[in-house]
């Protein structure tokens, strides 16, 4: 059988008084738990201006507050780039 000291080496507590950063990301993300970036990506298909909002947050380093937001914000920035490119090409074809 393992003694208490051997088990202590294998498992780390989720909240440690010596290192308060261990429990920093225990709380759920805003916007129904999926984060602002992913929520903006999904809502952007209805209202594309949400992609631009998330792009602004991405370039202003909003993800420094919570690194879990970075992927969703980057996906929204890519969606904004694709949408802008498609809109410019469509307008250029129609006008010219």
TrEMBL record:
Stretches that traverse the bilayer: 36-59, 71-95
Keyword Membrane: yes
Protein keywords: Membrane, Transmembrane, Transmembrane helix
Official protein name in the record: 60S ribosomal protein L18a-like protein
Species assigned in the record: Phaseolus vulgaris (Kidney bean)
Lineage: Eukaryota, Viridiplantae, Streptophyta, Embryophyta, Tracheophyta
């Amino acid at each position: 059988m393992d003694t208490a000291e051997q088990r202590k080496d294998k498992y780390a507590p989720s909240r440690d008084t010596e290192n308060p950063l261990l429990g920093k990301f225990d709380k759920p993300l805003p916007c129904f738990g999926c984060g602002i970036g992913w929520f903006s990506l999904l809502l952007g298909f209805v209202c594309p201006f949400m992609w631009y909002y998330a792009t602004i947050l991405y370039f202003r380093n909003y993800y420094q507050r919570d690194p879990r937001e970075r992927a969703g914000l980057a996906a929204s920035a890519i969606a904004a780039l694709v949408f802008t490119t498609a809109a410019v090409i469509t307008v250029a074809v129609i006008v010219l």
